[in-house]
Amino acid sequence: MKEVEFLFNDTVITNPHYDESGRFNVNPVEYYGEAYLNSLRRNFKFLMIEGAKNNIKYTWSEETLNSYKELIVKINKEEMLEQVTFFVENHCQLEDGDTNEMLIADLLNQIYD
After folding, report:
1. How far apart are CA 111 and CA 67, in angstroms?
2. What is the pTM for the complete model shown?
3. Which positions ≥6 away from 8 have C-beta within 8 Å?
């Protein structure tokens, strides 16, 4: 499964950790900028669930959000999903009517917002 796929300077990028030629390692956020970030946001749309669609927002500490935002350039989307899922399942307490999936979707939305 590809991490992301997006168009940048008329080239389809399938591995954002390399430049368009595929020869040079790059920081995808610095090199591709919004094109890369927008592709990540689109790829996480499938995680939207009813609670997130209805704009239910949870409050996450700035430390939590910033630590995950720093990981955007270091890990792929599957790894981010695994890390966020582990965090929610092991360190968050559900309230009445909440599900792990609701918290996971919200946290991912706030990380990539």
Report:
1. 9
2. 0.56
3. 20, 32, 35, 36
